[in-house]
Amino acid sequence: MRIEKYKLIAKIFFWTFWICATVPFFVQELTNERHNEVLLSLWALGEIIFVGLGIWTLRARVDKMIIAIFLTVSFIDTVLANHLSVMYWINGCRFYIAFLFIIPIFRYFWTDDTRRRYFIRRMDRLIYIYLVIQFPCMVIQFLRYGAFDNVSGSIGQMQSGNTSTIIYLASFYLMLRRWDKNASYFKNLLNNWQLLVLLLPTFMNETKVSFIYILMYFFFLVPMDRRFLKRMIYIIPLMVVVAVGSGILYSKMVEGSKVVSLDDVSAYVVGDDQMLELVEYIFENDVIDVEETDYARGLKFMVLPMLYDRHPKAWFFGFGVSQYKGGLKLDKTDFAKRYFWMMQGCIMQWHAAMVDMGIPGGILYILFWITVFRLWRRHKGERNLQMSWMLGLVTCIVSVYCPFMDILPIYVQYMYFVFVCSRWNELPAYQHIPLLGSKKFAFSLHD
Predict the structure, then answer these.
(1) Distance from chain centroid for Cα 87
(2) Torsion, CA 278, CA 280, CA 281, CA 287, rounded to 10
(3) Measuring CA to CA, which residue among 194, 294, 211 is closest to residue 253?
């Protein structure tokens, strides 16, 4: 029996994805252990497999350049400038696997028409099935733990921000794939009502950014053509209704929630006066024993220049790429131990890159997104403007909101959306996947 190379790669890809995307839920719910040795080993194995697939399919010069530049900069920052061991460097590079080895896999399938159609059909099915199974998983978590960060779906607890983000993007992508240009806006929503229903679990946790996502969702579904402004006349009232309805639903789900004021938003983003004074005291007195470990995201960005000033070379080299890894098999770095209060709680992807590699790391982060979004290309019909704008704004949000490139099932889908948004005209016609329970539904996750 002979299996073609691209089918073997696809099977390894999809099986690895589904194991990493579903096992955590069952392990955590059955053992009541959030951090389980089995899961840590599972994530590590999944990362190794995807690195292997990325190397196996590596062909394009741009992908080789991205990998070479990152490895060079990160090695200089970690080993040469900060005198951490090579083992710390290797371990720290795990935090950046999504940036290095996922796009090459997609590009491999894209270079051949047969491979591309084979892969896209299975990715569409993967995205839909993943979206569907989040519903029962999140309902179970909500009933067990209440509307908190534990409600994170099949990838396990404490990933609510990542889960809510990918749910909106998955539903949005499928809505665009199913969109009938000959039908009206509301007719399309009605025809694909199940994709809207699958958004409901995002209000079963404390992810406040869902209010922004749902407004963006309905706004960017509007076709960006000459009638765009005219359509806004009836879309804006819909968005108002959605915003009010979402607020009511959230208040019912999350106990003790209330109408959010500007002061509440400010405190959520940058912290209150008391928190600012605490951080200033910590730095002025070089306090190490800190009890508070969940600081506002904006406050952590404000702290970064203070850290750079205390360690001047960090402006150009950061503190090494192992700050957000380690603590189990490999001990945490001295920096991570000393400033543990900043490393815990909310972790932001862009902020983490600048902690690891300094200002050059922040610049490389921006250049990466410019490259993979292919912002310089202006070929008419090639890019889906709705998906591009939605993804572009979401990328800006999550860059300062959560570590969305550290969870394999999340970054695989996210990178796929980014990859296809500028190649939309190369997607074959969408093949409808019936709802669960239909006789036509194919249960196989990889065929």
Answers:
(1) 26
(2) 100
(3) 211
